[in-house]
């Protein structure tokens, strides 16, 4: 029985799991869970993930949530190359350092910008006030600068000469604002060069396959039935207003 991965590639963590599994030739069955249709709230998915979030994994009678936990499970089960999560204590600690930092930094700020530029105007029918947009952009830029100056420094990748889980988790988050029309790489040659190295390491075809949905998000949102967006309004009101 192959591993089942429950994914929606609009989700950054889902893209990291998808890329990791495909890049390492891990056999899996792709189970699409449409966040836009609210399928993660359904009874069937609730049996897989009690927290009702994607990504999720099922391996026989074993279920697992959270993208980093899933990738570490796959890395150990399928004995993926050491570069992803190095055996060397210091290199592995650097990967863990980035993975621990990113949740409340680039993940939060990149996601916030995506919602404020694209999702909130579409769902709520109003534009986010300029002062809030400016503040969110300032937070995002601060996180991007930390990635450049603290995590990358003068190295090709976050922990050295090879791509690791840290780079994979970073790139999917940094790509998210592009789906809302914000080019975060503009004016950042160091970050752009790193992006190109990550893309080359992953492989352009796989990189594009994983990101084609989010990069087409602006056009996709024009086709969404407005009634499907009602379920997002309570979340938006709770988090942004």
Automatic annotation (TrEMBL):
Instruction: Identify the keywords attached in UniProt to this record, alphabetized.
Output: Cytoplasm, Transferase
User: Transferase among the record's keywords?
Assistant: yes
Q: Which PROSITE patterns match?
A: GST_CTER (PS50405), GST_NTER (PS50404)
Q: How does it assemble?
A: Homodimer.
The Swiss-Prot or TrEMBL record describes its family as follows: Belongs to the GST superfamily. Theta family.
Q: Which GO terms describe its biological process?
A: glutathione metabolic process
- Single GO MF annotation: glutathione transferase activity
Q: Where is the signal peptide?
A: none
Which protein, by its recorded name, is this? glutathione transferase
Q: Which reaction does it catalyse?
A: RX + glutathione = an S-substituted glutathione + a halide anion + H(+)
